[in-house]
From TrEMBL:
Gene3D superfamilies: Helical domain of apoptotic protease-activating factors, P-loop containing nucleotide triphosphate hydrolases, Ribonuclease Inhibitor, Toll/interleukin-1 receptor homology (TIR) domain. Pfam families: LRR_14, NB-ARC, TIR, WHD_ROQ1. SMART domains: LRR_CC (SM00367), TIR (SM00255). GO terms for molecular function: ADP binding. GO terms for biological process: defense response; response to other organism; signal transduction. It comes from Ceratodon purpureus. This is TIR domain-containing protein.
Length: 1208
């Protein structure tokens, strides 16, 4: 080894490389991986995985609580013990913590000696116990940290025994034979009195704040190994996000539904800052909502005391404001927990601006609007919404409370997963249900488990929190809208629901309590986290809130007694609704929402046997509907109701009728629904026409008609326009049999939205369409038979969106198109349109244009499109010389341009351009200039491209694709791009990238350099703040850093074929901080994926799909690092198995995996992680080398022999 030390670094690395390339056996044993587990103190050896983890026995207890039982055991000590356990520690309190069959005194002695922290609670009767005093002496002798807690006593009482609370106790012990121990005990008390401790009087008697301070000290005192088992599920990611926000703002509002974990997160934030001693003063004001009414003055005193101002004796708001102003010290941290009114916050902090520079304030509330109002005076503020836990964290939290372990007891795995999933990630529900099942693990208890979630409705701890939010809604209309969503409207588009609620403004029903300002009411429901709108614009609600809302419907709001179903306002269960309809009561005046059919097995009303009715008939059911005077919402999905042409057959107040999978060929000929605003008949395969041409249909206020997926619908009635004059939206997606629309559609002067996408037999639109003066959106996507648009299309002066995607028979746009002055979006890809006429330049509002195969356009066209921000002209052949005039352009796609040889220099002047795609341009040779503000640049697959300008000035570039530009000679400035997340220079075989290093980039997620000779840094310190997943690929045939762990080569071929290529077992209890995967493979094509699965006891815990890129030929090394925040790494525990699979998508493709390895990193020191292979160097030498060089540069040499270069 001394010889190697004297060789140059390059020789050392070459020698390392040679030792890495190992021979592979050809045995038939099952494929096994290797585990390289590294810490900062030792370099672990690589060994084959075992199928059982060795059990390491840590300290049994983390914290020893020394206390006087009669004083504090059932109060403060019990509360501290519970708080430590909730925080993941193992405290020892008393004999209850001793296992059966263990010797009490020996167990106490072991607990005291093994604990990492000792907490001594000094109370007035402490000195009466020789046990307490002897334990105190033992604690001092142990040398471990002692945290004194002075509970109703002071340090002076320990120093000066005479005339103090301890005098009588010591005298009594002396009388009972302990006189010779008095000097020892007094000395021990004196030593502890000199230690920095916690005093109840310093927190104004607030035991909760005292406990929080002790927890902070325990966390900072215990070594990382003891904290390894500490689990705060889902909290690490939340805390990091919140702290990142607090780096940018001085006030953070934490919002979310009740029981979701807002206060827990606020405590984590508070403890983080306090433990790092970043503020001069700090204060956590908990449960402000309830305390503001019961003890407002005490809240103020607590705050002022925590700010070091003592008891200022303030008695009113004005006096408090004067004391507050200018009195708060420099840099403070304040947490104001659980407010529901702005005034509650202002009563404590009248002016945020008066807090010292660098101060931070955290506010928690269920009400977003209250938080934003409270933060309005802050210089910089943000809102953080606490969302539900993911599936993994939910199950772990549930199991921790049900089994005191993350793993369920034998035989309960599937049942526990179902119960946990039913709680929907709601933290309080998971804790409550889990704890309720803790002692129910016998076979005879399995039925109880299946009922556990239903019992939540009776749990005031959970539903009480949520119910209070509902009950505190300001109006009856807010509450009615909440119940509408909970019972009937989950999954409905927000705009549709608002249409229904707005129509209630003219409601004649005496009982209708819908809000007269539904937009504001819905905003309030969202602000209180009772309802949310997802990314698709659909109304959503947590399952627990849904159940709570439905439970409110079932109970009398005053008497809290359960109502009979006939008295409910909403009936959402078809079985129950059928029973109610068959009851003797004919009026049922309360029913607002009714569901008589759901799913594919909907009830056929009128069939007494299938509907569960007693002698019911179709006409009887129809007449009963007419008796529901307040019925607003009706679902008849898949149901058949015989309707005799009588006005009385339908409730006059009906607003929404959803009748999907309607069973008839057409609607009744005299259908009269005077208040109906939404009719949904989607999926009605038997519907051939809407109604007869001479039918007396009266839908005078209908605004939305949904006929999507009525595949046999041939035509609409000729009187369609006259029957529904107020229609605003008509959806006819996937009506594949419709060939024409009636001319009367031109009478729909209020129509704003017309969706005819995938009406594949539609040949043309009626000329009357141009009379739709309010039409804003016209969607004709995938109308493959459409041959022309109306010549006077330009008369649609309100049209904003015209979607012609894949109208492949459409070859021309009408000359009048220039009249569409409001048009902002034109989608024409997949059409036969290849020329833009002179009128096109008149579309001055156009912001987005997409089309394929453009051959020509009138001169000056681009000069008229000054608002254009997105332009997609793929597969074009037209000259692009005028693009420089598009000064507002942000996204430009000229991919697959057939003739362009050089990108116009004027493109460099487009200062707002952020994305440029010129990939797959076969004739492109040079790019003369590029805007420096680009964030995304794609020039891949341009085989003749030889030159591009330097990218050094593109400081915002995050995505760079130059893949397979085989003639490209240089990429200057690549090493300057510190924000790059994706870079692909693979296949750039003419490039001489030697000396170019992609280094120091914390954002890099994906890097492909195969064939370019460019080196890329692999930071083996794996700094915090980097990506959770990083992939690096290059050409070669050797694994760096790791020894080959595969027994056999693996060949994967075929269509959707998967094969296991790597596996390992986690063999340590210490927390996993990263996982490095490496494969050496070859194969044709790119249609492959890699999946990583974590198994625990044979059961899938986590599954993740990783980025995988193959060259079309050659051998490639794929190195993927999963960071500490990746779901795979976060889930790992001792004994878990990691399985890595590769999947082939396309038939005929083959992938060959020749080598592979897994390295599991256990991080104990944030400064470095050792990943050198112990078979190459001795441990000490390897450690010295990594500490010395810090980073590794993986250099692509394109000669199948990659070099590993050390770089300082």
């Amino acid at each position: 080894m001394n010889l190697w030390r004297n060789l140059p670094t390059v020789c050392v690395t070459l020698w390392i490389l040679q030792r890495f390339i190992r021979s592979r056996g050809k045995g038939t044993a099952a494929l096994e991986g290797t585990v390289a587990e590294a810490t900062s103190n030792e370099l672990s050896e690589v060994s084959a995985p075992s199928h059982g983890a060795t059990e390491s026995k840590p300290h049994r207890y983390d914290v020893f609580i020394n206390h006087r039982g009669p004083d504090v055991k059932k109060t403060f000590a019990a509360h501290l013990n519970a708080a430590l356990r909730r925080d993941g520690f193992r405290p020892f309190l008393d004999a209850k913590d001793i296992g059966l069959g263990e010797h009490a005194y020996e167990s106490i002695d072991r607990a005291l000696k093994g604990a990492g922290v000792h907490v001594a609670i000094f109370s007035k009767r402490y000195a009466e116990s020789e046990y307490c005093l002897n334990e105190l002496c033992d604690m001092l002798r142990s040398g471990q940290l002692i945290l004194p807690v002075f509970y109703d006593v002071t340090p002076d009482d320990l120093q000066c025994i005479q005339n103090g609370p301890f005098q009588r106790g010591l005298e009594s012990l002396a009388e009972n034979g302990w006189k010779n121990m008095l000097p020892t005990w007094k000395e021990a008390l004196g030593k502890v009195a000199d230690l920095r401790g916690f005093r109840l009087d310093e927190v104004n008697g607030d035991e909760e704040q005292l406990i929080r301070s002790i927890l902070v000290e325990v966390r900072s005192a215990l070594p990382a190994t003891l904290l390894a088992g500490k689990q705060r599920y889902g909290m690490e990611g939340r805390l990091k996000e919140a702290l990142n926000k607090l780096d940018r703002v001085n006030v953070l509002g934490v919002v979310g539904m009740g029981g979701i974990g807002k206060t827990t997160l606020a405590m984590e934030i508070y403890d983080h800052f306090v433990s790092h001693r970043q503020f001069e003063r700090h204060c956590f004001l908990r449960d402000v909502r309830s305390r503001s009414s019961s003890e407002p003055s005490q809240l103020r005193r607590d705050f002022m005391h925590a700010m070091g101002l003592g008891d200022c004796g303030v008695t009113n708001t004005g006096e408090y404001g004067r004391v507050f102003e200018g009195s708060i010290p420099g840099r403070v941290l304040v947490v104001v927990d659980d407010i529901d009114e702005k005034g509650q916050f202002e009563a404590l902090i009248p002016d945020i601006g008066k807090l010292g520079s660098g101060s931070r304030v955290v506010i928690t509330s269920r009400y977003r609007d209250v938080v934003t109002q409270a933060m309005a005076g802050a210089e910089r503020w943000e809102v953080y919404e606490v969302l539900v836990l993911n599936e993994y964290d939910s199950r772990c939290l549930f199991n921790r409370h049900a089994f005191l372990s993350e793993t369920p007891s034998e035989g309960f795995a599937d049942l526990a997963a179902k119960v946990a999933d039913a709680c929907g990630g709601h933290a309080l529900s998971l804790e409550t249900v889990g704890a309720s099942l803790f002692d129910k693990k016998g076979r005879e208890d399995m039925e109880i488990w299946s009922e556990a979630v239903k019992d939540l409705k009776e749990n005031e701890g959970v539903f009480g929190k949520l119910r209070s939010t509902y009950e505190r809604l300001p109006t009856d209309g807010d509450r009615a809208m909440f119940l509408d969503v909970a019972c009937m409207l989950i999954g409905m588009k927000k705009e549709v629901a608002l249409t229904i609620w707005k129509s209630c403004g003219r409601c004649s029903g005496a009982q209708c309590s819908s809000s007269r300002t539904p937009g504001l009411a819905l905003r309030r429901l969202m602000d209180r986290s009772l309802v949310r709108v997802d990314e698709s614009g659909m109304l959503r609600m947590h399952d627990v809130l849904r159940d709570m809302g439905r439970d409110m419907v079932k109970r009398d709001s005053v008497k809290k007694e359960r109502r009979r179903p006939e008295e409910w306002t909403h009936l959402w269960d078809a079985e129950e609704a059928a029973e109610v309809l068959s009851s003797a009561d004919q009026t049922k005046p309360r029913i607002r929402g009714l569901c008589l059919g759901v799913g594919d097995r909907a009830k056929i009303l009128g069939d007494g046997e299938s509907a569960g009715l007693r002698g019911g008939s179709a006409s009887n059911i129809a007449s009963q509907l007419s008796g529901m005077k307040e019925l607003h919402l009706l679902v008849l999905d898949g149901s058949y109701v015989e309707v005799r042409d009588e006005k009385s057959s339908w409730p006059e107040e009906l607003r929404w009728l959803r009748w999907r999978r309607f069973r008839g060929g057409q609607l009744p000929s005299e259908l009269k629904l005077p208040s109906l605003v939404v009719l949904d008949l989607s999926g009605s395969d038997k519907l051939t026409r809407l109604w007869e041409d001479d039918a007396d249909i009266k839908l005078p206020v209908l605004q939305l008609l949904i006929l999507s997926s009525c595949r046999r619908l041939v035509e609409l009635a000729e009187n369609f326009g006259q029957s529904i004059p107020k229609l605003k939206s008509l959806e006819m997606r996937w009506c594949g049999s419709v060939k024409r629309l009636p001319e009367s559609i031109g009478l729909l002067t209020d129509l704003e939205h017309l969706d005819l996408s995938s009406c594949r037999n539609l040949v043309s639109l009626p000329d009357a369409v141009v009379g739709l003066g309010k039409l804003k959106t016209l969607i004709l996507q995938d109308c493959v038979s459409l041959q022309q648009l109306p010549e006077e299309l330009g008369k649609l002066t309100s049209l904003e969106t015209l979607d012609l995607l894949d109208c492949r028979c459409l070859s021309d746009l009408p000359a009048s198109i220039g009249g569409l002055k409001m048009l902002t979006t034109l989608e024409a890809r997949g059409t036969a349109v290849t020329d833009l006429g002179a009128g096109f330049g008149m579309l001055t509002s156009l912001t987005s244009l997409s089309m394929y195969g453009l051959r020509s356009f009138a001169p000056g066209t681009f000069q008229g499109l000054q608002a254009l921000s997105s332009l997609v002209l793929s597969r074009a052949s037209a000259d692009m010389g005028g693009l420089g005039a598009l000064t507002a352009l942000k996204n430009l796609d000229l991919s697959e341009h057939n003739t362009i040889t050089a990108l116009p220099k004027s493109i460099g002047n487009l200062k707002w351009l952020v994305s440029l795609d010129m990939s797959h341009c076969p004739e492109l040779v040079t790019v003369e200039a590029l805007p420096e503000g680009l964030e995304r640049l794609d020039l891949g697959e341009c085989p003749k491209l030889t030159e591009i300008p330097s990218v050094a000035g593109m400081k915002s570039l995050v995505h760079l694709d130059l893949g397979n530009c085989g003639s490209l000679r240089h990429v200057r400035g690549l090493e300057c791009l510190t924000l790059l997340e994706y870079v692909n220079v693979s296949g750039c075989t003419s490039m001489d990238g030697r000396g170019i290093r992609i280094m120091g980039n914390r954002a890099l997620r994906e890097c492909h350099v195969g064939g370019s000779k460019i080196g890329v840094a692999f930071d083996n310190r794996w700094v915090e703040g980097g990506p959770s997943e990083q992939v690096i690929t290059w050409m070669g045939n050797a694994i760096p850093l790791l020894t080959n762990g595969m027994v056999n080569e693996v060949v994967v071929s075929g269509d959707w074929t998967s094969a296991l290529v790597l596996e390992c077992v986690i063999a340590r209890e210490a927390k996993c901080m990263s996982v490095i995967l490496c494969l050496v493979s070859s194969g044709l094509g790119i249609f492959k994926k890699i999946e990583v699965k974590v198994l625990r006891g044979g059961r899938l815990i986590v599954q993740s799909t990783l980025n995988f890129c193959f060259p079309e030929n050659g051998i490639q090394v794929w190195l993927c690092t999963l960071g500490r925040e990746h779901q795979v790494v976060q889930s790992l525990q001792e004994g878990d198995q990691i399985h890595v699979y590769i999947t082939i998508y396309n038939h005929g493709e083959t992938c060959r995996v020749m080598e592979g390895a897994i390295c599991v990193v256990h991080k104990e020191d944030e400064n470095h992680i050792l990943m050198m292979n112990s078979e190459v160097l001795e441990k000490k030498e390897s450690e010295d080398m990594v500490l010395r060089f810090g980073k590794l540069v993986l250099e692509d040499t394109s000669d199948l022999q990659p070099t590993i270069v050390m770089a300082s």
